[in-house]
Design brief:
heterodimer, A: alpha/beta, Rossmann fold, five-stranded parallel sheet, B: Rossmann fold, 2 domains, 14 strands, 21% strand
Chain lengths: 338, 325
């Protein structure tokens, strides 16, 4: 369903989701088309854009967001500049972290993403910390920690959840279930992952994480309640693993997303046709907007604009300088170090 | 007029002083004292600052991570981990989050959190409660390592760390020092990080000693003095930052150096300091660098076994004698 907000805001959500998609397509192309540009492992957020964007839409600038190895989308959703994200992904001096962080650890303190851990549960406890700090400072800021089903296998999840409940911390445990772990039946003994927070008396909500309207409505209410002191709250947003994420390294198995597939699903390559037809939050949202009368031309124009902006961001990243080698030894300490 | 107080009481006094003026300082699980002295003072501190004190569940990875996140958001948490080995449960948050965040962010995110660790061979601690992880943490870029040896130094350094530090700090207090008494200057004073202190002047050899090894080295120096050997005892007080110039100056003066720290020999603190002296002070040396620390074995329980591995004053004396012979 469509979120219950004015049309320009509805389109604003689309714009941001598309920006994440286009930026991450560039990320994969950096790897595939430029030998040695991304030397290590990386992960993308494709297929989960509806949750990050709709949640961050409900947040204030001074709210904290924590994320994971799948951070690019969350940083852009919270207001991060795609140029600085893409530059960081390929280790450029112009990136958010001056090339020190890379794809796994993009942090953008200026928009409230103060640290990013690529350990799947690494940021859970830190998020408890910013929530506790807000509580101590009697500020209205809340913290949202995004994590995946895999993070619930780590002990830090249980310890943080327990403390968060005991201390009534103003935080939201926003679990994006992409079924990368639990879908394989590998990692968790619980029948439903929400049974774990329920056992600690943390209220849970399970939603369709690819439906922008549902996510937006849930996020708005959960954020309101958390700000009012009803936290911590737990949400499981269920998404569907993008076929390109089924490998160790993400692959553009069907090429970049063509929004024309929203209207002609059968035009999509067979390997990804069903996913884009049923499970792609962006194409589903496009179809809903078209159904209420937004013209195809307008939507295509919006996509063209976003794609051009993403292309420019990718060019910016590629043309940006690498850090000076001697920068390597900076920043171990904020104080004098040695 | 200096005041006599225990190491633990000195820590409590520093904490009380700074908490009164700086509302950003919060405490998790405050203890800081030994088994004997200071119980009334601890109770008073807990009462006075109850609104800024938490007693978390037994969940080290959880509460150390929460303290770290709170520091990122502008608080200055001081976490009493209690027995140092309990920090091993929180290594992912201390080493893999707190220590790296400033660097990862390109110098933007500061993490002024302090973890207090009661460490070392305590007497009957056995294999799991006698840990000395100072070299692990010293080997982690991004962490400050503070290990004062006297009540006066403990008070001054705790004040500095709580008020001024911008980095995560591991503050080591040896279990056997917490009830030791010493004279503490009256009034407010700070001891800067990275400033070594010569605890006793000498000319024949330098003994670099950390934490509990300082009183052991001073006891050894007295014995050696009776034999005509003049030992200088120098306490780095903080390993990170490290006052290399002061250590090298002392070695230059004496030409001989014995390094003693209550961690294990292999890749221990003494080994790290020895490497620095070999690199930067080799020309001053008239004899090989010697180390007195714990042999590479988990610390055993029974008295004779534990005594055998503890780097006592007598061992310092024996090695010092060899060195000047």
């Amino acid at each position: 369903m469509l979120p219950d907000i004015p049309r320009d805001q509805q389109l604003g959500i689309l714009r941001k989701m598309l920006m994440i998609r286009r930026a991450e397509e560039h990320c994969i192309r950096f790897h595939d088309e430029h030998q040695g540009l991304i030397r290590g492992h990386f992960h993308v957020y494709i297929g989960q854009e509806a949750t990050g964007v709709s949640v961050c839409q409900s947040l204030n600038d001074d709210d904290y967001v924590f994320t994971t190895h799948r951070n690019h989308g969350h940083v852009i959703a919270k207001g991060g500049d795609p140029k600085k994200v893409l530059a960081e992904i390929i280790g450029r001096a112009t990136g958010y972290c001056q090339g020190r962080a890379g794809t796994f650890h993009v942090a953008a303190p200026e928009v409230g993403v103060i640290h990013t851990s690529a350990i799947v549960g690494g940021c859970l406890a830190l998020a408890g910390g910013t929530a506790y700090a807000a509580q101590m400072k009697e500020s209205k800021a809340i913290t949202v920690v995004f994590f995946g089903d895999g993070a619930m296998e780590e002990g830090v999840f249980y310890e943080t959840l327990n403390i968060a409940k005991l201390w009534q911390l103003p935080m939201i445990f926003w679990m994006e279930n992409n079924y990368r772990r639990s879908g394989r039946g590998a990692g968790h003994a619980a029948t439903e992952l929400t049974h774990v927070p329920k056992a600690l008396n943390v209220e849970t909500t399970v939603i369709d994480g690819i439906d922008v309207g549902v996510v937006h409505k849930t996020a708005k209410e959960i954020v309101r309640r958390t700000r009012a002191g009803e936290g911590p709250l737990f949400v499981e947003a269920r998404t569907h693993l993008w076929p390109g994420n089924a490998f160790a390294m993400p692959k553009l198995v069907g090429g970049i997303t063509d929004i024309a597939w929203a209207w002609n699903p059968d035009a999509a390559p067979e390997k990804i046709r069903e996913w884009h037809k049923e499970h792609d939050p962006i194409l589903n949202y496009l179809r809903e907007l078209a159904a209420v009368g937004v013209s195809r031309a307008e939507l295509e124009k919006l996509d063209t604009e976003v794609s051009q902006e993403a292309d420019a961001a990718a060019r910016f990243a590629l043309e940006s300088p690498l850090p000076e080698p001697t920068e390597a030894i900076k920043y171990a300490f904020a104080g004098k170090g040695n | 007029m200096p005041t006599e107080m225990t190491y633990g009481e000195a820590l409590l006094a520093a904490i009380d002083e700074v908490m009164e003026h700086d509302k950003r300082i919060v405490l998790f699980n405050p203890g800081f004292i030994g088994m004997e002295a200071g119980q009334d003072k601890l109770a008073a501190l807990r009462k006075k600052y109850a609104a800024r004190i938490k007693f978390p569940p037994i969940a080290e990875i959880g509460f150390c991570g929460i303290a770290t996140g709170a520091a990122m958001a502008g608080l200055r948490p001081l976490v009493d981990i209690s027995t140092a080995t309990f920090s091993y449960e929180a290594i992912p948050q201390i080493v893999n989050e707190a220590a790296i965040a400033h660097s990862n962010s390109g110098g933007v995110t500061n993490v002024p959190v302090t973890f207090f660790l009661k460490f070392g061979i305590r007497g009957g601690g056995g294999v799991q409660h006698s840990g000395s992880p100072q070299s692990w943490y010293w080997n982690t870029p991004g962490l400050q390592v503070v290990m004062p040896s006297t009540p006066a130094d403990a008070k001054g350094l705790m004040r500095t760390v709580l008020l001024q530090s911008q980095d995560p700090t591991i503050f080591f207090g040896h279990d056997r020092l917490l009830d030791d008494r010493g004279s503490v200057p009256d009034g407010v004073y700070e001891i800067p990080l990275g400033k070594a202190d010569v605890k006793c002047q000498g000319k024949d050899l330098t003994i670099i000693a950390t934490s509990i090894q300082v009183p052991r080295a001073l006891a050894a120096a007295e014995i050696l003095a009776k034999e005509g050997i003049s030992a200088e005892v120098i306490d780095p007080r903080t390993l990170q930052p490290l006052d290399k110039p002061a250590l090298l100056a002392s070695v230059k003066k004496t030409g001989r150096v014995l390094i003693t720290d209550e961690s294990h020999d292999n890749c221990g603190v003494a080994a790290g300091l020895a490497a620095i002296i070999a690199d930067e002070g080799f020309a001053s040396l008239r004899a090989p660098i010697k180390r007195v620390s714990i042999p590479p074995v988990p610390v055993p329980y029974a008295v004779p076994l534990e005594d055998y591995v503890t780097p006592m004053a007598q061992r310092i004396v024996e090695v010092a004698r060899e060195l000047v012979r």
